[in-house]
Amino acid sequence: MKAIYFMSPTAKCVESFIADFKTNPKYKAAYVYFTDYCPDDLFNNMKLYCSKYIRVCKEINMNFMPLEAQVFSCDNPGAFKSIYSPKSQDKQKTLEELADQLVTLCATLDEYPGVRYKKESNMENTKIFAELVDKKLARHYELDDSGTKKGKTQAQLLILERGFDPVSPLLHELTYQAMAYDLIDIQNDTYKYKSKDGLEKQAILNEDDMLWVKLRHKHIAEKTAHLQLAEDCMQCFSNNVEKLCKAEQDLAVGSDVDGLKVKDPMRTLLPVLLHPYSTQDKIRAVLLYIFSLGGTTDENLSKLIQHVKIEDEREFILNWKELGVPIITPSFFSRKSSRRDRSQDETYNLSRWTPVIKDVMEDAVENKLDAKDWPHQSECPAAWNGSGAVSARQKSKTTQDERRSGSRLIIFVLGGICFSEMRSAYEVNQAVKSCEVIIGSSHILTPTSLLNDIKALSKGPMETFTIEERSNA
């Protein structure tokens, strides 16, 4: 038999490939497709041992996971610890790998974007990463097969890191997809359930399920289909969780349903702490309280930790500092950025918070990003306004324009994105037809996985644990 190999150009993969042919060949011939550029040393190794078996060897530049129409992932949850743990020994290597993957995304889209990054006063990751990506993009387009050097296209790539919005990934989201992944144990996008006749069944939640695509961003209050999963969600979403969601929204937004400012966030938090919610729900609420104040005192934090009974697990809270998020005041870094006024938007009372990334997307499309906060690592050839309007002096790229009338905005978040941020890309895309918004990250987050990752930041490489996974409080 002949074999097709689809693999990453890593030492581990290449060694496994060579092992298949070195002493006792398993296959008659091999057709090898690399997801990315293969380093010379690995390529020469393959040639040395396997050249007579290799019929095809191609680099196809697709070293990322296209999860949804507008969402991609580098499928690397371990990147969180590598980037943010003070004990990390492979941070630079991880950033290099993520940059390589992001370059293959741009190559697949045939884009050579201008690169901008969110400048943080207390963190350097976005700056370092933007430099890496820009260098690798330049190198990639230097190596173009056609021999012609590609110029920058009408696309913009924005780079942020997880600490820019610590609120969105922790809120209880009431849109269908986010709620399902938060409350139900869905592994590998597969939902397992018992049908009415008691048989074990499973459903794959992906783009092939048109009903899922149609419903995934809808608020739980609007839905009538996908009943079994909806029922499971609603079982978890009892009256108690409704009160919890209201408190979370008040803390996140800073005002209540009627628009009145929350003057004393502790009065909002206390009922949550006094109710028998799960430990994880209480941790999420305490964090939202701290974020709303921009940090709290040592004394106050100790009281909260005692109250939630997590004296031995205080890292769930303290380790946010590794993401540049202030936990203890006084903090020298003010993070209170002004938000867009959405008071006129129609929302559900329990879903008033808008992810910060949606503001960023809209500002980018309208060309309103402040150059001080968003330095250019490299610029597009013409003033980018997301409308696809280009300078009259530029040659028109007919094939691109036939495919889409506007330009592309690519957003990449170091350290994970949550489902409400994914949804934001679709909402902005829908509102601004002339600009395609694509969002991606090292991996996709749920509140549980993020809290586990945060706690693990202070552990050594071999220490592991898990938070109490879920509670149908």
Automatic annotation (TrEMBL):
Indicate the family of this protein: Belongs to the STXBP/unc-18/SEC1 family.
Pfam families given for it?
Sec1 (PF00995)
Q: Which gene encodes it?
A: stxbp3
Name the record gives this protein: Syntaxin binding protein 3
What is the protein's species of origin?
A: Takifugu rubripes
Q: Which PANTHER family match?
A: VESICLE PROTEIN SORTING-ASSOCIATED
**Gene3D superfamilies from the UniProt entry:** 1.25.40.60, 3.40.50.1910, 3.40.50.2060, Syntaxin Binding Protein 1, Chain A, domain 2 (3.90.830.10)
Sorted alphabetically, which keywords does the UniProt record give? Protein transport, Transport
Q: Where is the region Disordered?
A: 382-401
Provide one Gene Ontology biological process annotation.
Answer: vesicle-mediated transport
What the entry lists under SUPFAM superfamilies is as follows: Sec1/munc18-like (SM) proteins (SSF56815)
